[in-house]
Amino acid sequence: MVDGMGWDGMGWDGRMDGMGLGWHGWIGKDGLDWDGMDGMDGLDGMVDGWDRDGLGWGMGWDGWDGMGWWDGMGWEWIGEMGVDVDGWMGRAELLNKLNEVQAPEAEMKLLYTTSKLGIGERMYQAKRVTQEPRTDVPEKIRSISGANKRRHSSESEPEEEPSSSEEEEEQKAAPEEPSGSAVSAAAQPQGAEGEAGADPARPKAPLPPAVPSTALCQPAVFIPVDRSAEVQEARLKLPILAEEQVVMEAINENPIVIICGETGSGKTTQVPQFLYEAGYASSSGAIGITEPRRVAAVSMSQRVAKEMNLSHRVVSYQIRYEGNVTDETQIKFMTDGVLLKEIQKDFLLSKYKVIIIDEAHERSMYTDILIGLLSRIVPLRHKKGLPLKLIIMSATLRVEDFTDNTRLFSVKPPVIQVDARQFPVTVHFNKKTPLDDYSGECFRKVCKIHRMLPAGGILVFLTGQAEVHSLCRRLRKAFPYQKNNTCSAVQSAVCTPLNVVLSPLLFPQTLPKIDLSSYSVVPVDEGDEDRDGDSDADAAGSDLDLDLGDGDSEEDEKSDSSLPLFVLPLYSLLAPEKQAKVFQAPPAGTRLCVVATNVAETSLTIPGIKYVVDCGKVKKRFYDRITGVSSFRVTWISQASANQRAGRAGRTEPGHCYRLYSSAVFMDFEKFSAPEITKRPVEDLILQMKALNIEKVSWEGLCAAAAFKVVALRSQKQTERLKQQLAAKLSCPISPLGRVMATFPVAPRYAKMLALSRQQDCLPYSITIVSAMTVRELFEEFDRPAVSEAEAAQLKGKRARFLQMQKVWAGQGPMQKLGDLMVMLGAVGACEYSGCTREFCEENGLRYKAMLEIRHLRGQLTTAVNSVCTDAGLYVDPKMQPPTEAQVTCLRQIVLAGLGDHLARRVQAEELLDDKWKNAYKTALLEDPVFIHPSSVLFKELPEFVVYQEIVETTKLYMKGVSAVEPEWIPALLPPYCHFGKPLENPPPSYCPQRGRVRCHRPSVFYRVGWQLPAVEVDYPEGIDRYKLFARFLLEGKVIEKLSSYSQCLLSSPLIMLKTWSKLQPRTEALLQALVKENCDNHDALLAAWRKNPKYLLAAYRQWVPEAMHQDLALNWPPVAV
């Protein structure tokens, strides 16, 4: 058939055309389709095999297009050409067996395979080239010898490595064309098709896309990180590592992402590393992470730097008073207040590519404001082509606050839930809830745990520093620990490894004494419940083995030296080196017991804790927006906080949480704590937002509408009045003084003090006082319970030493009137003069940590003042001398101007209602009496008027940070707070050349409370009388000195300007109307009018002088250089 038909007689295309059949028609005639041929001796595999082994002459399917002998030639031709048919059929049989284990046909249809070759036009479009005149087209091959020549020529060309995956990608990328305009592959000229198949390396012109592209694909970026094997092994145990792809895909595809994961999931340390490895910390930007607490920002930066094996110059931190940020920083941990300050300088945060808001569930004030601002910054950055990613990380499921807030996010951001690495925690509730003696209940519960339960650390939650020290003293007395103790058999049992339950023989379980009278007659079925986890699988018996009961035991108070307990306190004011002890392993033969406040709830994770004792209480600072009184109250915690505390027991192994309250009480808890913004003053926040040129500041935008429910108001009318007052304040534009105040990182009251301190060289002293007032708890507490008799004697000696130094720092005479602020100033000055050493602080009752913070803040405020007042030339002088008496008087006035709304007046003898008002003070906002705190140096002085830093509520309402002021200063320095009477006729009004204004003496009363204040000289009130008086002093020559020469020649006395019949004279009316028209009632306004019109007042003034002087007056007008 080859000789009879040949290539010339009937080519592949010619044969089909001669038979009147197209490609598809031929398939249909023979009853074949290429899908059906998939099962014919593994045809797909054969084609691939021919190409690889060279059996297909290096041509593949393109080479077969020229063969016209397919029908006329059977498989016998293979043997005639010297091919081993048996071997080949063995290969086919092998391929058949492979085909049996291949993917099903339905799955294969989803992929591009050789079974799809030739069907439709999709597979050929990738190889189609634009038809252009070509001069290098090879001649058609018309014989087998020509095919052999072509094969040899193709073998001489460099071979390309076959890649089926690349071909599939090319085929997937080939756009589809409408079938009507496409040219069938079978209808193409043979030469063109052969050219396309023979020259795959020839560049092809790109085809227009079938659909418009939506976004450009970004290249994948991976920054390698050289971690140690130990770090990598520890990372792989974190739950968030399994969600890395999900997290990064969500971040890449969304501008805002919320990641929700409980404490221990690893989100804080690992998400920044994910972003770094993905290239988000490249040369054009950095990764910023905000933390609500300084200790978290510092410790997390050190942890991430260690894990990534990078320098602290690359992974840095920045907190309020310190930081190690450099130009090389790519990952920056900071407090939320630091980022808010950066927004003031650079609103778009152009140096960041990603901002991570951590611990958003705590709803701190700065975190809430940052989320609100960033929700506007992110779209602005997107419009500018500099996208910013915002990641909000929360430790609880409190994400509805963000996702359901359409005013915050117009498009609901995706939420990624990450499971925590949490072991099961068994929660035990008390049958009865102790109302008062919860500290004693904690002691009894710890004693039972230590005597009866297996090894494992104990974490106790209490409310305050005094309670912590008291419980530590009782536990150390009950289970004394001495360094030279040796482990007895029982102690060795206590030191058994974790998860090993002690034998009851080692610890004979003592049944608690049960007082039936303490139980209700009605059966109580709440008992100890499993709520958060299953029972410990390793425990012998059921979970009831760890039910300690609620009764008292006489053995609790007995001292047992055979069971030493290593007791450590933990609270925020504790020295850092003492806080670090809780992270160290306890001594051999002892059990660790940490007595802590809520600082151990989220900020710190203590290793080795298996048992948690939760009293269910917390001491919080409450702020009354109406009265300004802040008080510490012990209240119940929220359910979220209770769950956080329980979770501390399941970090390293299954644990137990003993809640000293019933399940019914727990169900009455609030689900979440109220946001901080509803519990503290927001003046500084409003000032900062106004400084950012945010004009529309709404109360609803600052916090939830439910915030007004938190404020203790008496009636709905007061609520509406408060809203109106807030709306009026929020709508006021910021003044130049306000912009200056916004540059200082302190409260607005203190910032105003700094802005008014340039006189009398008081800036260094004002900066020191403001720093001391900003940093709380300068002095040690000596009223706390002592652990031992020796410590009690030591505290007594320190208290006597502090009282002696307090008198020295307060000074004598006029200096003492500065009061507690003078003590702060003297303490800081003395500490800095001695070099701010720890020994000096401990000897004189000062907190060393607070003194270091004051030093940092002084430097920060000094820099801020120098930036505003470039000619100030301030510096932090460690040898600063005490202020003079004149400077102290000036400082008292500055303090009054800054703390004007914190004014109090001593109750007079005739105003005493009962004994509770003795030695009391009255404030403008409180109906109840307030008192000077006993620790104040003015406690026995009792000045008539004082200003205070704050009011705290304990057994009484006490004022702290007290300073005495003079009553005549109040109307002069606080005119907005006073109601002034009519100007006094004696002394009469006068003109003040220094101020350029008309002044008068006016009596006043302090607003609302009606305190009568002495008459003081103030500016004359606005009105027509002020214009008349200014005209009088102008005619008398007191305003403009050159006009005094004409005062003796006036046609009428200037005093007639004040008469009721002054309108009867035209000259008085003309002068008065001219002044009123230009609002000229002071010297500066008159000069401005003359600059605008040099002939201003000439015509009116000429009516007051003889006509002979008119020409001379015109030549010298205006009578002052403008």
Low-confidence stretches: 1-88, 113-205, 207-213, 486-545, 700-719
Content-based structural category: alpha/beta
Structurally, the number of domains stands at 8
CATH fold descriptor of the largest domain: Rossmann fold
Spatial order of strands in the largest sheet: 3-4-2-5-6-1-7
Helix content: 25-40%
CATH homologous superfamily placement of the largest domain: P-loop containing nucleotide triphosphate hydrolases
CATH architecture descriptor of the largest domain: 3-Layer(aba) Sandwich
Number of helices: 44
Using the coordinates above, name the CATH class of the largest domain.
Alpha Beta
Distance between the termini: 119 Å
The number of E-state strands comes to: 26
Protein name: Activating signal cointegrator 1 complex subunit 3
Biased composition (Basic and acidic residues): 129-142
Domain Helicase C-terminal: 445-693
GO molecular function: ATP binding; helicase activity; hydrolase activity; RNA binding
In short:
This protein is of the alpha/beta class and 1122 residues long. The chain is 37% helix and 12% strand. The chain folds into 8 domains: 164 residues, no CATH class; 190 residues, P-loop containing nucleotide triphosphate hydrolases (Rossmann fold, 3-Layer(aba) Sandwich); 233 residues, P-loop containing nucleotide triphosphate hydrolases (Rossmann fold); 59 residues, no CATH class; 161 residues, no CATH class; 64 residues, no CATH class; 49 residues, no CATH class; 89 residues, no CATH class.
